[in-house]
Specification:
The protein has 279 residues and is of the alpha/beta class. The protein folds into 2 domains: 69 residues, Alpha-Beta Plaits (2-Layer Sandwich), CATH 3.30.70.80; 174 residues, Peptidase S8/S53 domain (Rossmann fold, 3-Layer(aba) Sandwich), CATH 3.40.50.200. The protein contains 6 helices and 12 strands. Helix 5 runs parallel beside helix 6.
Length: 279
């Protein structure tokens, strides 16, 4: 059995599963010494993970740097003494947030005070959303769909970063609601950032990598950017910090909330109320 320890520094306890499998853990690195090069600090953390018997499963670079790794409880305890590590937490699972069965009337609810009167401000306006880049962090997108301005994509779960084709359908569904030629913003440019597998499951570290990629794209290209995430899962500090970084970079972050019928709390998608541009 894996010995589980509750750590300090705001680190949640890791639940014991009763087997010998190590808990996947996100190691978030921050530089503590101003005179130490960032690359040197990052390399030292990676080396420390390996030296303590850990296996790095994903490297995360960008607005927030860190690694996802499989670690034992003993390794986590040792790594907390390592310079350059801010905290260690479980790499929590995320999953698709299922939409309502008949969402089309929702467009009428958001365009005016007199909701559901059959009038849509987007009706016939194919330029709505023009000049805005929208990145959908989901299961990818079906490139055969020719009814929207699909610019490109990115896949965080594979060495083939272009393998962002949707093998689940959820990403394509949500993107078409917002950005198809008959949607809310048909003029927007669409990016398919695949952070979930074909079953609709993933991890917080994968979403962090996806957000990092979007922020870097926004820096390179400029303009107005929106991140859309229809994801469910518990609160994750690393993911929350990354969302804050995206906000600080001027990106609007939109998440699903209330799909379970009893709450509209954005913490269900790992984000806190401290993010003012979270819708």
């Amino acid at each position: 059995m894996v010995e589980c320890t509750e750590f300090l520094l705001g680190i949640p306890s890791i639940e014991c599963e009763g087997n010998n499998r190590s808990s996947p853990t996100t190691v978030h690195r921050i530089q503590k010494h101003a005179n130490q090069p960032e690359t040197a600090t990052y390399s030292a953390v990676e080396s420390a993970v390996v030296d303590n018997g850990g296996t790095i499963t994903q490297e995360i670079h960008g607005v927030l740097n860190g690694v996802a790794a499989d670690l034992s409880a003993e390794a986590m305890e040792a790594l907390m003494e390592q310079d350059g590590i801010a905290y260690i937490e479980e790499d929590t699972p995320v999953y698709i947030s299922m939409p309502q069965n008949n969402p089309t009337w929702g467009q009428d609810r958001i365009d005016q005070h007199d909701s559901r009167n059959g009038y849509y401000i987007w009706k016939g306006n194919k330029t709505a959303g023009r000049g805005i880049d929208v990145a959908y962090l989901k299961t990818g997108f079906d490139p055969q769909n020719k009814h929207m301005n699909l610019v490109g994509g990115y896949y965080v779960l594979s060495t083939d970063r272009n393998a962002w084709n949707d093998c689940n359908g959820h990403g394509t569904h949500v993107a078409t609601v917002g950005s198809i030629e008959y949607g809310v913003a048909p003029g927007a440019d669409i990016w398919a950032v695949r952070v979930l597998d074909c079953s609709g499951g993933g991890t917080a570290s994968g979403v962090v990598a996806g957000i990092n990629w979007v922020v870097e794209q926004a820096k390179k290209m400029g303009g107005k950017w929106v991140i859309n995430m229809s994801l469910g899962g518990g609160f994750n500090q690393t993911l929350n910090d990354t969302v804050k970084k995206a906000r600080d970079a001027g990106i609007i972050v939109v998440v699903a909330a209330g799909n379970n019928g009893n709450t509209a709390d954005p913490s269900a998608c790992s984000c806190s109320h401290q993010v003012p541009r979270l819708l």
